[in-house]
Design a protein that fits this description.
heterodimer, A: alpha+beta, Arc Repressor Mutant, subunit A, B: alpha+beta, 4 domains, eleven-stranded mixed β-sheet, eight-stranded mixed β-sheet, 15% strand
């Protein structure tokens, strides 16, 4: 379990930030959205989702608020902050650079 | 700037997180519950699973809830503080829940840590604490030395030569001490008086708190007599230290002016305790001796100890020919020895013994408590298993145990401070003769020491169970809550190791106690040389001013003795300077004319008491050959001595003593001394020593300071009071001390070794009890765990006897292993005991055998109790239980 969390560490922050671009979500919502967007390929180990959320909150990239969920339950909603948007852009371009580089290496024979 | 702000914000967040920990945890719970509920609903909807199955999958997908929570707290960055507090609370609660375990562990640790702390405080005060003198490492004491270990004090001649010729010291001083009468305003008391030249104060760099130190002018013969008083004396005699300066005190009948008072904490100078410190006005010597003065010097800047030694050796060589007529030891050299070393050497042995003993007790205590802790770990394996299932990590569990050990050790350390305070008092009382031991306190250093010991103990105790949890195989055994898994057997074997260690550590303690006991029994059986019953001794000191010459002293005693003999109940009254069994008063060197020591060799030395003829009758010492002193032995008559039987045996191969001659005190210009008689042995150097003695008649050299020995028939108290009255009427200025029963003196002389032994015996007893409890506990557990197996065996026809012998056999295997290892350890340390034993070899087979038997017997009882319980197991019951 912990091994997977470690592997995802670098990209997990990026993915969480991305899911929040369309609007506030609660924890389960984020994991559901990730699965949907990736056709169930990316299944975030939930054990690492909440620590990541806390970390992002502490860094000021997301803000959290208690509210009522569409299911009518009290839930903590996470919203992307201005700082978080900037961070998302930075991480996106960095990821693309990285992905392109990796792809290029793999394509070479 | 921005970074600093960020940092502050983060800290603030963490502080908030800490204070709001409970709220945050609750929020976390809510979030987690929501997540699992939503996931469950989702699974039901999308996959058509039953709600139960959906929930189970959601939980599995989420992972360990506990672990997740901890990871979350990790992210908060305050986890360790929260957990520390939580662990502490948990540990305290856990310990309170099993008060029997906690109380016994704290008591055992308190005993071990307390004893160690007490000995450490004494060692610290005596051996380690710096001397209260500036640059104390530059202070030396000068001895005469003619072999690697044989050294003695200096004489006035020696000191004068060193003072005049030395080029190595910035200051040199000499001192000597004696207990003499001192009177203030008509009240006379015996006081420890130390005559010291001004050089002593300069060498030590000590200044009185009030007034001044003596100056070189005060040291000159004929100068007005001045004295520096101790604070205690000044306060007692004059009410306060400040008011004492300028007052007068009569020391030995001579009036002295107090010029200074020492600070209250200065109770000794250069290790010598004193009430009064008069300026030492050196007499003009007529011969090289007598020796026995203490010379203290401070090395000048840049001079090494070796350079000073070479300088002093040169002085010894130049001085020797000048006084060859009265001193023949050409090999003796003046040798500087650092002051610290002179004090440390004596103390090392006494404190070393206690140090080793308490360390052993501490080790046994730690082994014992580790054992208890281990049993506790085993007993709580189900709890551990439960927590593991809930997701607590192994590291976290391990830390829990360590925290519990720390709490336990801290409580033990606190108890240890109480034990230490008591123990230190006992230790100081037993070793009152050690310099500086009266300064031992349970101070900050001691508290830090106790804390350090507790911490080490905590780590030792907690480390094993913690390691156990961290190691996968053993951890599995524990965490699965199953006692019969192979891993648990390893724990069992560790208990065996601890048991053997406890037993093995106990053996040297028991052996040392046995040897000392044996030694004391022999010491108490030693014949002091006379029947001590109905024998009184009264110490009489006459003031020097009125009794300056021999004839005045002789006159007083010629008048006093007949009147004392008239007192009802007195059979004999004799005078002697020495006090059996351990005060020879003076020792002197001698050279037999028929068996001379080769030129330049070291002459033998013997106790040399001055006595009247009736001394022998009063003590009841038989005359074996020749005669006692006649009335002709007065000052100026040819010198005569009476010697003891062992002296004859030591120095005269043919055993014929009467009529032979010797040269006393190395005085070749004096007329030779004739041996006129041989008497029975009396111990003067301690009961453990030989009965050598050379008696000189008091009439040939009166001393102002003598013991009056009274052989009585009736009640000693009445007789003593009457004799005191007689003496007081004849000489009101005399200082009288006693009378004491000589039998009490004898008992007192073995009181210290007795107290030592008692202390050691209590250590050994404590260790033995702990070891026995260890065996008992282990076997009881084994019996409980194997109840079923025992039941099966009995059902198959094993007799109770076979069961008992199986259980006892298992326990005794530990005991035997412990005994063998312990005996090996005792044998290794035995050589070291030799110097404190009397007529017992350190490897005394009888003592070691007795110790082994005792250990095995106690172990046997500790094994038998659980074994008997095993034998009463009802097979049917036992099998049904599981």
């Amino acid at each position: 379990m912990s091994d997977r969390a470690d592997l995802l560490q670098g990209t997990l922050d990026l993915l969480i930030l991305k899911t929040l671009v369309l609007g506030p979500l609660h924890g389960w919502g984020i994991s559901k959205r990730l699965r949907q967007l990736s056709d169930d390929v990316l299944d975030v180990g939930q054990g690492s989702l909440y620590p990541a959320l806390y970390r992002l909150e502490e860094r000021g990239w997301v803000s959290a608020e208690w509210g009522t969920s569409p299911e009518g339950r009290r839930a903590k909603f996470y919203t992307l902050t201005r700082q978080g948007k900037k961070q998302l852009l930075a991480e996106q371009s960095q990821w693309r650079l990285f992905a392109t580089a990796v792809e290029q290496v793999l394509r070479a024979t | 700037m921005g970074r600093a702000l960020e940092c502050v914000q983060r800290l603030a967040r963490r502080a908030r997180a800490l204070t709001r920990a409970r709220t945050l945890d609750a929020e976390l719970d809510a979030e987690v519950r929501l997540h699992i509920d939503l996931e469950t609903d989702d699974l039901v909807r999308t996959r058509g699973l039953s709600p139960e199955e959906a929930r189970r999958r959601a939980l599995v997908a989420f992972g360990g809830v506990e672990r997740y929570k901890e990871a979350q707290r990790d992210a908060r960055g305050v986890r360790w503080i929260e957990e520390l507090a939580q662990d502490l609370r948990y540990a305290v609660r856990g310990l309170l829940r099993s008060p029997a375990f906690s109380l016994s562990a704290v008591l055992v640790l308190g005993l071990g840590i307390g004893a160690t702390t007490a000995v450490f405080s004494a060692v610290h005060a005596v051996l380690l604490a710096p001397f209260p003198y500036p640059r104390a490492d530059r202070i030396v004491r000068i001895y005469q030395q003619d072999g690697p270990t044989n050294r003695w004090g200096l004489s006035v001649v020696d000191f004068r030569a060193i003072e005049a010729q030395q080029r190595s010291f910035s200051a040199v001083g000499v001192l000597k001490w004696s207990d003499v009468p001192a009177s203030v305003g008509g009240r006379t008391e015996q006081r420890r008086v130390v005559w010291a030249t001004s050089g002593i104060f300069r060498a030590l760099a000590v200044h009185p708190a009030y007034g001044r130190a003596p100056t070189p002018d005060d040291d000159r013969p004929g100068a007005p007599r001045v004295v520096v008083a101790s604070d205690a004396f000044a306060v007692r005699a004059f009410g306060s230290a400040a008011s004492a300066v300028g007052k007068t005190v009569a020391i030995d009948g001579l009036s002295h002016t107090i010029v200074g008072v020492l600070a209250p904490e200065v109770r000794r100078l250069a290790g010598v305790r004193g009430d009064l410190w008069p300026a030492f006005q050196l007499p003009t010597p007529t011969r090289r001796g007598p020796f026995g003065h203490v010379v203290i010097a401070r090395l000048a800047d840049g001079v090494t100890l070796d350079a000073a030694a070479a300088d002093l050796a040169g002085i010894s060589e130049r001085l020797f020919p000048e006084w060859a007529s009265s001193y023949q030891n050409a090999r003796a050299r003046f040798t500087p020895v650092p002051l610290r070393e002179t004090i440390v050497v004596n103390a090392r042995k006494a404190l070393g013994l206690f140090g080793v003993a308490v360390s052993l007790v501490l080790l046994v205590a730690v082994a014992n408590v580790s054992h208890l802790v281990l049993v506790r770990v085993m007993g709580r394996s189900r709890e551990v298993a439960l927590r593991t299932v809930l997701g607590a990590t192994r590291a976290r569990l391990a830390r829990m145990w360590i925290t519990e050990s720390v709490v336990l050790a801290a409580a033990g350390g606190a108890a240890g401070l109480l034990v230490g305070a008591l123990g230190l008092r006992v230790l100081v009382a037993v070793n009152a003769n050690l310099a500086r031991i009266d300064e031992a306190r349970l101070d900050t250093t001691a508290v830090l020491f106790a804390a350090g010991v507790s911490l080490v103990v905590a780590v030792i105790m907690g480390a094993y169970p913690a390691a156990l949890l961290l190691r996968r195989d053993l951890g599995t055994a524990l965490r699965s809550g199953d006692r019969s898994v192979a891993g648990a057997r390893r724990v069992q074997s560790l208990r065996g190791v601890l048991l053997v260690a406890e037993l093995a550590l106990t053996v040297p303690l028991l052996a040392a106690t046995g040897l000392l006991l044996n030694s004391i029994v022999r010491l108490e059986r030693v014949d002091p040389g006379f029947p001590p019953e109905h024998l009184l001794a009264l110490h009489v000191a006459l003031p020097a001013a009125q009794y300056a010459d021999d004839s005045s002293i002789a006159t007083l005693w010629t008048r006093a003795l007949p009147r004392i003999r008239e007192v009802h109940g007195i059979v004999h009254a004799g005078l002697g300077t020495a006090m059996p069994p351990d005060d020879p008063w003076d020792e002197n060197n001698f050279d037999l004319i028929d068996y001379p020591v080769p030129s330049g060799g070291t002459q033998p030395v013997s106790p040399w008491p001055l006595v009247t003829s009736e001394y022998f009758a009063a003590l009841g010492v038989p005359l074996l050959a020749g005669r006692l002193f006649g009335p002709a032995d007065t000052v100026g008559a040819p010198p005569e001595v009476v010697v003891s039987r062992s002296w004859v045996r030591h120095y005269l191969p043919d055993g014929r003593a009467v009529g032979r001659q010797l040269i006393a005190g190395g005085c070749t210009s004096c007329p030779p001394t004739t041996i006129v008689g041989v008497v029975g042995d009396v111990k003067y150097r301690g009961l453990a020593e030989s009965g050598d003695a050379v008696y000189e008649p008091l009439s040939q050299g009166w001393s102002r300071d003598v013991n009056l020995f009274l052989r009585t028939t009736g009640s000693s108290a009445e007789v003593g009071a009457r004799v005191r009255a007689v003496l007081q009427s004849l000489e009101p200025g005399a200082s009288l001390d006693g009378p004491v029963l000589v039998s009490d003196r004898l008992a007192e002389s073995v009181a210290r070794p007795r107290a030592w032994t008692a202390l050691l015996a209590s250590f050994a007893g404590a260790a033995l009890v702990l070891a026995a409890i260890g065996i008992f506990g282990t076997l009881s557990d084994v019996v409980s765990a194997r109840r079923r197996e025992i039941g099966v065996r009995m059902a198959l026809g094993a007799t109770p006897r076979a069961i008992v012998s199986a259980v006892v056999g298992q326990g005794m295997r530990y005991a035997l292993a412990g005994a063998v290892l312990g005996l090996a350890a005792a044998a290794a340390g035995a050589r070291w005991m030799g110097s404190v034993l009397f007529e017992v070899s350190p490897g005394d087979p009888l003592t070691l055998a007795a110790v082994t038997v005792l250990l095995l017997a106690v172990a046997g009882i500790a094994c038998w109790l659980p074994a008997r319980r095993a034998a009463t197991v009802d097979p049917a019951d036992a099998i049904r239980v599981e």
